[in-house]
Design a protein that fits this description.
The chain is an alpha/beta fold. It has 14 helices and 13 strands. It has an eight-stranded parallel β-barrel, surrounded by six helices. It has a five-stranded mixed sheet with strand order 1-2-5-4-3, with helices on both faces. β12 (332-336), α12 and β13 (354-357) form a beta-alpha-beta unit.
Amino acid sequence: MFQIGEALMGQGAELAHVDLMIGDKGGPVGQAFANGLTQLSVGHTPLLSVIRPNLPPKPSTLIIPKVTVKNMDQAGKIFGPAQSAVAKAVADSVEEGVISKDQVEEIVIVASVFIHPDDQDYNKIYRYNYGATKLAIKRALKGFPDIDTVLEESNKSTHAIMGFKVIRLWDPPYLQVAFDNPDIQFVQSAISQIPKSDHVIIEAGTPLIKRYGMDVISKIRQVRPDAFIVADLKTLDTGNLEARMVADAAGDAIVVSALAPINTIDKLIEEAHKTGIYAVMDTLNQQDPVSVLKQLKVMPDVIELHRGIDIEATEHAWGNIAEIKKIAPKTLVAVAGGVRLDKVPVALSQGADILVVGRAITNAKDVREVAEQFINSLNKPEIDQFRIMTDF
């Protein structure tokens, strides 16, 4: 048995990232330790950590450079501040009781250490690698993260090096701005005016997609790279094929019509989940969406209660939200069709998770101002998805 820990500390070129394994000398970590010392590779020569020359810590710790070492200047950063930092972190972990003194001769540590070729500040290299190693050890021995933390954080966080956010719909309510105007220049201009918010969804409406195809998703991303983009295909057939098309175009969600055959809806949802995108079922002209849900093998991620543009004089069909959530408690419910600012409190009070708004925003004289009014009506603070978690 062995434990695994990981930690990132610091910033800039001196940033430290440590992955490590802790385990018995007679187990797989011990075997990896021995192999590392005897099976050398060019540019990634393992080395024992030492607090100073001739003083390795206990438990014995092997450092594996992650980045290929190409010259003696780079080697000096490993055989110096990084080597000492890792060793001191191990020794301090024993002194502080994180690692038991009784175990130090029975276990070993293998630490993979990142040293950027362009880093210059030895002081920062030492301090960041010390902190990262110490935290990684503590996390490994405490079993961090537990599975509940993983599941809670997985939709809240985005890897900082990606440079863009991957929005997941974990914190409703949301405002979904629907663009049905089949003029890409107008759409791009309007999207650029919508305030950036984790609680805003962009919908590529059916007329827009019919004119430009899946390429419209890329055109929207030119303006808003980190947007959550819904492709409103209103699929009626070939559900798995169309879900794959949206995923391949880097869309975030596909819309299937609740009027489609059950088999088509099932295939679309399964393919959407296989590719990591959301499946939205639109109930336009479907009088009994609950009966459709009861026939599905897998629940969609979103049910959209939709009153069409051509029948806006009729009443909103929001009364069965509670019934829908009984059948599909993890499914979000969106309401669409004539949603105005004064209807927001009503929709939210009835359990709506997503407010789909089209012309009330896109046809406004001041798109930004009206969009802000809708966003503010949600009463939802922003989440910093790029935060670096240093807890355990």
